[in-house]
Amino acid sequence: MAWFCIAHPELESEHMDKAILMCLIHDIGETTAGDITPADGIDATAETKHIRERLGVEFLSLLLKPSNPYWASKMVEVWDEYEEGTTRVAKLVHQIDKLECLHQALIYLKRHQGKTDFQKSFASFKELRKKISDPWLSADADAILGEWNALTNKEQQASTNVVFVIGGPGVGKGTLCARIAEELNFTHVSVGDLLREEKDNPASEFGSFIRKSIQESVIVPPYLTMRLLKDRVQAIQSQDRGVLVDGFPRSIEQAVAFEREISDTYMTVCLECSPETMIRRVQARSGSSNRDDDDLVTLKKRLATFSSTNDAIVKYLSKNKMARVSVDAARSSDEVFASVKELLVREL
């Protein structure tokens, strides 16, 4: 909730400080009362929840009093202001609470797709939207409900084939995907290319951040990857074409985000060869690739990152109900292509 206060473009500084404090104290109450979700199966009325949170704040105030009597008293005072809901800040924080509830509900539904009555839940949460009047918060709430609708439609539609092609730098992912896309009903999406395009886009607010991440071989946050990847994949799927996602996922967090945001059904092709072969191939292409991440120093960082994360990612992807297949990528590109093409035709 505090994040919405910080991000709000029209909240004056004196109100922002108070709103952030109120959000924190509101959440502190839930640390003792517990944040009750539909998965808990607890029939908690609004009155019961209020009593638990109020007692939670009082309890924490008593713990704080010996070391800081002022803030112990202030905590209860701010909580009471929130509950009364008459000041401008309290009214805004109440709306933020409703928005955060919508946001958390959407996350919950993404985690439990296929296990929840979406339409029934959607109808009840629509009522929360009516309690949000602030223009900036309203835009966020409408975006959440729009995504909720899209999620419902996604459950009702059969998804097209999604294939992850993973492997270390220089293993041949891009070459393979380009050839597969030419011969089969697939479109090639390179996450690395998406990041490089964003890095070189003068209008991008993330350009400098992506450049630093690439230089240090640090995996970018799942949110940023999904922001770039989601629209591209869904546009391809709307054309009833399969999607080859090259160089993704690079972390378990990215895989989980993909499952929640796009599809939880995919096949994985793991291209494998020795680090020596990967280094040789990257050095051979570095003269013409013009890629910042192909210089030797950055390449060694990329290999170290890949080696430290790949086993956990492969283990996670192996749990998916579709096949995960390892392919010897030390062979020629023609041999690798023939093997993977045969595999895709057989499995999909």
DSSP helix fraction: 55-70%
Low-confidence segments: none
What's the mean pLDDT score? 84
Strand content: 5-15%
Structure summary, number of beta strands: 5
Instruction: Please tally the helical runs, counting DSSP H or I stretches of 4 or more residues.
Output: 15
Q: Which structural class best describes the helix and strand composition?
A: alpha/beta
Main sheet: strands, sense, barrel: 5 strands, parallel
Radius of gyration: 25 Å
Please state the overall shape, judged from the principal axes of the Cα atoms.
elongated
Distance between the termini: 44 Å
Order of the strands making up the biggest sheet: 2-3-1-4-5
Q: Helices and strands, in N-to-C order?
A: HHHHHHHEHEHHHEHEHHEH
Write the layout of secondary structure elements.
Elements: H1 2-7, H2 13-33, H3 46-64, H4 69-84, H5 88-111, H6 118-129, H7 135-156, E1 162-166, H8 173-183, E2 186-190, H9 191-199, H10 207-216, H11 222-238, E3 242-246, H12 252-261, E4 267-272, H13 275-289, H14 296-317, E5 324-328, H15 333-347
Parallel strand pairs: 1-3, 1-4, 2-3, 4-5
